[in-house]
């Protein structure tokens, strides 16, 4: 058999060679030598192609980055994104300034981005002064850890709009926070007097989240002169002394959102009737087994949302009774449904309670005439039985009811109007209160918001503060030397 010795060279047709070789024949010495040279040539070309591929991929990434949407965003949108990325960690802002000249100019030209001061992170006075300088005259959002003093911030109290503290810093009672709107007293062992939060210290206060207990009720000689700013949001712990009642009385005309926690002791105050004409959100957390009836009889002609948690203690009826205007309700137990004439959405933390609620509605189809959606956390339930009861119930009702089982990611969203909306913790930064819609949670839109803004904002809400990783910034701040960005 004649053996073919291929010619070697860059223009060699390897496919032709493979067709001409008879792989069933045994190669002679010359075939082995020539084939070895062909193999070396092929491997060399593969290495060249791999090198070229890496080069092209690098050039491709450069071109993609060059025309990336993040480089073409207007200054105002880019500054909003960078500001949002930097709210949770001081190093993020410092690192953003090191990415490029454009980003450095953008972040330095965005004073609001530097206005969130978490002193868990900003322990350095030098770093705190840097943030104060770069924040210009923007209102400040300040988080003070336990036993941390105001320090440098004492000179800028007029700029503090939101303050979160775990204890009363030294010298704070003598200061006037002229523009403070949101105050979070995070609890712990310390107690405060009502006089510490009166209108003379916080004339602009609108949102108070108070997990701290009050020491005593007002001294009778100060009852006629003590007052508090017109609060719109209040979260409070009920205590044996009537100090919390005094606080409620002072803001009954202005409150729109109220959260009360009954602790593990009896309430000394007897039943008290109070009318809250503007209240739209009410949440009661009952942690006391002896509290079977609220010590307050609240009249709430504008109430839209009612939430009740009983911490495992059964109450035959809701602790709040004036429910005629409620359209959203959430319970961790089986609620009494007698007074919900306007209820549209009922949320049950226990999916097993859905069956019981359906049985109650089937026994009296006139209950909750406007109800059209029941939501519950995902759990094992008898779908077959639920379906049968629901079909029978809907035949007896004018308005049909749907059942929806949701997971924790949906359930954990704040209920419309909840006081937590106004917290300013490192993991729950201040935001505008959501609008109360029929179903779900919607952010209040800006009148000047463009379609491009809407797209960017939707991405920010989707990814949250971790959106840096989706902008190609993730993992780049771990070794940043903050001292190198002092100027």
UniProtKB/TrEMBL annotation:
The keyword Ribosomal protein belongs to this UniProt entry's keyword annotation: no
Q: Which InterPro entries match?
A: F-box-like_dom_sf, F-box_dom, LRR_dom_sf
* Keyword Calcium attributed: no
Q: Which residues form the F-box domain?
A: 71-108
Pfam families from the UniProt entry: F-box
Keywords from UniProt, A to Z, are: Coiled coil
- Coiled-coil segments on the chain, per record: 32-59
| Protein's recorded name | F-box domain-containing protein
Q: Which organism is it from?
A: Serendipita vermifera MAFF 305830
């Amino acid at each position: 058999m004649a053996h073919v010795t291929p010619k070697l060279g860059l223009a060699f047709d390897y496919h032709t060679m493979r067709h001409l070789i008879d792989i069933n024949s045994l190669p002679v010495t010359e075939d082995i030598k020539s084939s070895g040279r062909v193999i070396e040539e092929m491997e060399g070309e593969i290495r060249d192609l791999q090198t070229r591929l890496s080069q092209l991929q690098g050039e491709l990434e450069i071109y993609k980055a060059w025309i990336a949407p993040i480089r073409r965003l207007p200054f105002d949108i880019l500054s909003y994104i960078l500001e949002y990325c930097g709210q949770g960690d001081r190093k993020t802002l410092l690192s953003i300034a090191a990415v490029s000249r454009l980003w450095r100019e953008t972040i330095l030209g965005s004073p609001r981005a530097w206005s969130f001061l978490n002193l868990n992170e900003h322990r350095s006075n030098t770093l705190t002064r840097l943030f104060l300088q770069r924040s210009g005259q923007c209102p400040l959002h300040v988080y003070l850890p336990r036993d941390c003093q105001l320090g440098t911030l004492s000179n800028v109290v007029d700029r503090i709009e939101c303050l979160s503290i775990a204890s009363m810093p030294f010298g704070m009672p003598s200061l006037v926070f002229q523009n403070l709107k949101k105050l979070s007293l995070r609890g712990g062992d310390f107690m405060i007097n009502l006089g510490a939060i009166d209108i003379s210290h916080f004339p602009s206060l609108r949102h108070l989240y108070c997990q701290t207990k009050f020491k005593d009720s007002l001294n009778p000689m100060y009852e006629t002169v003590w007052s508090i700013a017109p609060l719109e949001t209040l979260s409070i712990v009920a205590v044996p002394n009537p100090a919390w009642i005094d606080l409620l009385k002072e803001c009954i005309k202005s409150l729109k959102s109220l959260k009360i926690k009954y602790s593990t002791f009896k309430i000394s105050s007897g039943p008290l009737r109070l009318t809250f004409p503007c209240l739209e959100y009410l949440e009661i957390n009952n942690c006391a087994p002896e509290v079977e009836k609220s010590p307050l009889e609240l009249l709430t002609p504008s109430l839209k949302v009612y939430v009740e948690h009983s911490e495992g203690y059964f109450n035959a009826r809701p602790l709040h009774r004036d429910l005629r205007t409620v359209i959203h309700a959430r319970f961790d137990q089986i609620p009494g449904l007698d007074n919900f004439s306007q209820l549209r959405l009922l949320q049950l933390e226990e999916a097993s309670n859905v069956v019981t609620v359906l049985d109650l509605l089937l026994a009296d189809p006139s209950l909750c005439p406007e109800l059209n959606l029941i939501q519950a956390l995902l759990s094992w339930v008898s779908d077959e039985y639920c379906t049968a009861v629901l079909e029978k119930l809907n035949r007896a009702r004018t308005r049909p009811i749907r059942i929806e089982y949701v997971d924790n990611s949906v359930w954990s969203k704040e209920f419309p109007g909840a006081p937590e909306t106004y917290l300013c913790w490192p993991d729950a930064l201040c935001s505008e209160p959501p609008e109360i819609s029929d179903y779900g949670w919607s952010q209040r839109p800006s009148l000047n918001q463009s379609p491009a803004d809407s797209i960017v904002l939707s991405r920010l809400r989707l990814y949250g503060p971790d959106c840096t990783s989706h902008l190609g910034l993730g993992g780049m701040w771990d070794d940043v030397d903050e001292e190198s960005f002092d100027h």
